[in-house]
Amino acid sequence: MTSQAGTQRTWIITGASSGFGRAIAECAVGRGDNVVLAVRRPGSVADLADAHRDQVLIAEFDVRDTGRAGDVVQAAVERFGRVAGRTRATTPSPSASTCCSNTATRSAASSRS
């Protein structure tokens, strides 16, 4: 499955260990997009990375260390060629919200079938 426009996007998601960040990461991977999971504890997302090896890169990163942000972007570009989206788990972007809303709608519909 690929993104809505038929092109694969690459996301950098901070706070991807749990909550909104995790949900957005799972949604993006489910759409066929690439995801860089920028997390403090890499082991917290190992299951997602193991399940989607071709689409997921784990980057150990603490958002308080802004000096390393460029390293995360560089790792994303080296692995996937470009970065087309980013989101912070505390403030999802409109496209991330749409992705999660569409996924939740599909999940609710399939559970009613």
From TrEMBL:
PANTHER family: SHORT CHAIN DEHYDROGENASE, SHORT-CHAIN DEHYDROGENASE_REDUCTASE FAMILY PROTEIN. It comes from Actinomadura luteofluorescens. One of its GO terms (molecular function) is oxidoreductase activity. This is NADP-dependent 3-hydroxy acid dehydrogenase YdfG. The keyword Membrane does not apply. Belongs to the short-chain dehydrogenases/reductases (SDR) family. Residues 85-113 are annotated as: Disordered. Keywords: Oxidoreductase. The keyword Oxidoreductase applies. Residues 86-113 have a biased composition (Low complexity).
